[in-house]
Design brief:
- It contains eleven helices and six strands.
- By secondary structure, the chain is an alpha/beta fold.
- Among the domains are: 13-76, Orthogonal Bundle (Arc Repressor Mutant, subunit A); 162-192, no CATH class; 196-286, Aspartate Aminotransferase, domain 2.
- A four-stranded mixed beta sheet has the order 5-4-3-6, with helices on one face. A two-stranded antiparallel ribbon has the order 1-2.
- Helix 1 (13-27) crosses helix 3 (50-62).
- The protein is elongated.
- The N and C termini lie far apart (79 Å).
């Protein structure tokens, strides 16, 4: 079997072999049940290590393109035809499970954000919806050094799950930071989550039930709104100005809706970037 290999290419040799065979299988030039050359023979013909050919075959087998029989060899699998996709007509009803998602408003905010970005017509739009900074500002070199330091220090333990409450030294540091801000707590009372979305999910699942009303800033973090809607919670908005949530309008909302939770982002609010003023923070706590 002739397989052109470019030893100067950045693409590994095993990938070049795998891609050539994959193309032959998908195009039909390598028919079903065709026996591929033995790995030893093909490696000799191509002038590569046998492990290189075995890795290429393993990639094809993992993708369901070939199968191997002990003592017999590696053969091309018959490719099942892909089911025809239904036409994307506006009047075509959605599958039931998608209708349920649509009725639950899951992901609709994400879709609306994408629609707005496309409507802007800019080749490289900057979206502030996710609260993500410019990745070019990330200290990648420092991060790489820290990762190497941790691997040298902890070895294989660095890949374990670890404490379910979170890395103990990190919880210790968080407790000190909170203490410096007037919130006295202990490390065992702190839970480290994978991000704000997981924290919101845990809190809302713990203290809220479907149909409960919560007060949110208007506007606020789109991911939180998607989560609250998915849990069938009722939302009531409180306006935001240059000093954060307009807490003076909050008491009326409390009397009207009797909410179970107030969701606010007092520091560097998403998406406005404002910070709740000190006087409003005291007023909010008083309420």
């Amino acid at each position: 079997m002739r397989i052109p290999l470019n030893h100067e290419s950045k693409v590994p040799l095993y990938q070049q072999i795998e891609q050539h065979l994959r193309q032959g299988i998908q195009s039909g030039s390598l028919a079903a049940d065709t026996r591929l050359p033995a790995t030893r023979q093909l490696a000799k013909d191509l002038g590569v290590n046998r492990i290189t050919v075995e890795t290429a075959y393993a990639e094809l087998e993992a993708d369901g393109l070939v199968y191997s029989q002990v003592g017999s060899g590696t053969y091309v699998l018959a490719q099942a035809p892909l089911p025809a996709l239904p036409k994307n007509d506006p009047g075509t009803p959605w599958p039931l499970w998608q209708q349920e998602l649509q009725n639950g408003a899951v992901g609709t905010r994400r879709g609306s954000i994408d629609t707005l970005l496309r409507a802007a017509g800019h080749t490289h739009p900057i979206s502030f919806a996710g609260g993500i900074g410019d990745p070019h500002l990330f200290p990648s070199d420092d991060y790489r050094k820290v990762v190497q330091k941790v691997l040298r220090r902890d070895g294989i333990d660095a890949f374990e799950y670890g404490d379910r409450s979170g890395y103990a030294p990190l919880r210790e540091t968080v407790s000190h930071v909170l203490g410096s801000q007037g919130f006295h707590t202990r490390p065992e009372n702190i839970l480290i989550t994978a991000g704000s979305q997981q924290a919101l999910a845990l809190v809302s699942q713990l203290i809220l039930k479907p149909g409960d009303t919560i007060l949110v800033e208007d506007p606020t973090y789109a991911g939180a709104l998607d989560l609250f809607r998915a849990q069938d919670l009722k939302l009531a908005g409180v306006p935001v100005d240059e000093r954060g949530m307009q807490v003076e309008k909050l008491e009326r909302q409390l009397q009207r809706h009797h909410p179970k939770l107030i969701y606010t982002i007092p520091n560097f609010h998403n998406p406005t970037g404002t910070c709740l003023s000190g006087s409003r923070r005291h007023q909010l706590l008083a309420l």
